[in-house]
Amino acid sequence: MKKPKIIGLTGSIGMGKSTVAAMFAEAGIPVFDADAEVRVMQGPGGELLPAIEAAFPGSTGPQGVDRDRLGHQVFADKAALARLEAIVHPAVGARRAAFLAAHADKPAVVFDIPLLFERGGHEAVDAIVVVSAPHHEQRARVLARPGMSAEKLEHILSLQTPDAEKRERAHHVIDTGTSLAETRAQVSALIAELLAPDAGTGS
Questions:
Q1: Phi and psi at residue 171, in whole multiples of 5°?
Q2: What span, in angstroms and rounded, lies between the C-alpha atoms of 5 and 142?
Q3: Does residue 203 fall inside a structural domain?
Q4: CATH code where residue 151 lies
Q5: Is residue 133 part of a domain?
Q6: Residues 64 and 142 occupy one common structural domain
Q7: Residue 88: what pLDDT?
Q8: How far is CA 149 from the centre of its chain?
Q9: Range of the structural domain that residue 82 is part of
Q10: Is there a domain that residue 114 lies in?
């Protein structure tokens, strides 16, 4: 049986990846949102709470993971972050496999994965789509978020593959430094290209 084409969607913080993912979904392409799955598994009654609490005491409560408390325990501590990822990533992988099985009859699916390159996920997709915008626009978007600081932004960026490298390694780049209508047009054109008979990964 023919499998769906797997589109790996990624982009650094503040690049508009969530907006582009929503456009794919609106066009009828099923989207697996890795971050959203993590939020559910770390939310009230989430399946990951016992393991996270055991590894990071005091980081969970009735509402699930306390992001501030957990953040204080892993921020700028690579060993702690690795321990957290060892809990989260296998669970996300299992959910992703179930998602793929549920949509096995679709022509294409999107894996929305922020750390696609950093975690080697790019090797498991058929086409890599990177969402990008000019650096000044990225910075302005992120610093406008509640609780964000220049220091936090720099730390987050230090953990991510640089945007220029992502663009270089992508099969396709969606530029969100334009209007929403122009971005949507780029997404529509890309979907048509990716779903064309005998379409490859692109240039």
A1: -85, -30
A2: 32
A3: no
A4: 3.40.50.300
A5: yes
A6: no
A7: 92
A8: 21
A9: 35-102
A10: yes
Report whether pLDDT(95) > 80.
Answer: yes
Among 143, 165, 175, which residue's Cα sits nearest to residue 17? 175
Rounded Cα–Cα distance for residues 9 and 32 (Å): 10
Pairing of strands 64-65, 60-61: antiparallel
For residues 9 and 165, give the distance between their C-alpha atoms in angstroms, rounded to a whole number. Answer: 15
Residue that is written with structure tokens 């793929």 in the block: 100
Q: What are the distances in angstroms from CA 110 to CA 32, 56, 99, 140, 192? A: 6, 32, 10, 27, 14
**Residues 154, 187 within the same domain:** yes
Measured at the alpha carbon of residue 6, what is the angle toward residues 172 and 110, in degrees to the nearest 5? 80
Structure tokens at 166: 């992502």
Indicate the pTM of the whole model: 0.83
Per the structure block, which two tokens stand in for 129?
Answer: 């789509």
Can you tell me the mean pLDDT for 30-39? 93
Query: Does residue 120 register a pLDDT over 60?
Result: yes
Q: What is the pLDDT of residue 199?
A: 62
Single out the residue in 87, 102, 117 at which a domain terminates: 102
Question: Residue 128 in 3-state DSSP?
Answer: strand
Rounded mean pLDDT of 177-199? 90
